[in-house]
Design goal:
By secondary structure, the chain is mainly α. The chain has a single domain, classed as Rhomboid-like fold (Up-down Bundle), CATH 1.20.1540.10. Helices cover 69% and strands 0% of the residues. It has 8 helices and no strands. Helix 3 crosses helix 5 and helix 6 runs parallel beside helix 8. It starts with 10 loop residues before the first helix and ends with a helix.
Length: 190
């Protein structure tokens, strides 16, 4: 009988999820104080160094277990495949770019809204995944369907449903994933 061992197959994705998990634990222990201080972006003074740090770290924070689990499920499902295809450095870049862009947009457009969570990263991964079989001069039908289904739902929900979900962050994450997926695969196939 063959012995099986557990492999650390996706260091960036697993590391990212561990940081998100630790941030959630800290938030629970501190009654949300660490989310407010480190893992949530909101309109704060540009004189504060923490404002700039939170532009990146807000993707680590989550409002609760349900929020964390829904993001973790997608990231753990899609992330390893993407990390294998594009490499760890590219996945770090996608996470950092998504964090910065969604943080900045939230800061500029929504002065009274706090933002936390990895949902933008999830949508970047979803759209990036749809480019895995990209061929030069073609637009994958899977990309079109994913864009219509996922981004269309976010546009609809953003217009018609009033909740605590940042649909714009989802849309921005999806756009980043689509742009990165197109550019990376265009370079590979050219």
């Amino acid at each position: 009988m063959k012995k099986f061992k557990i492999s650390f197959n996706s260091p960036v994705v697993l590391g990212f999820m561990c940081l998100c998990f630790l941030a959630l634990l800290l938030s629970n222990v501190t009654g949300g104080a660490t989310n407010q201080l480190l893992f949530m972006t909101y309109h704060s003074s540009l004189a504060s160094p923490m404002t700039y740090i939170r532009f990146f770290t807000h993707v680590l924070g989550h409002s609760g277990w349900e929020h964390f689990i829904s993001n973790a499920a997608y990231i753990l499902l899609l992330g390893p495949m993407l990390e294998e295809k594009y490499g760890s450095e590219r996945i770090i870049e996608i996470i950092v770019i998504t964090a910065l862009v969604t943080g900045l947009v939230n800061y500029i457009l929504f002065w009274n809204v706090a933002l936390c969570g990895a949902s933008g990263v999830v949508f970047a991964f979803i759209l990036l995944t749809s480019f895995t079989n990209f061929k030069q001069g073609e637009i994958p039908l899977t990309f079109i369907l994913v864009a219509i289904i996922f981004l269309g739902q976010q546009i609809h929900d953003g217009i018609f449903i009033r909740d605590e979900i940042s649909n714009l962050s989802h849309i921005i994450g999806g756009i980043i994933g689509a742009i990165v997926g197109y550019r990376l695969n265009k370079k590979v196939k050219a």
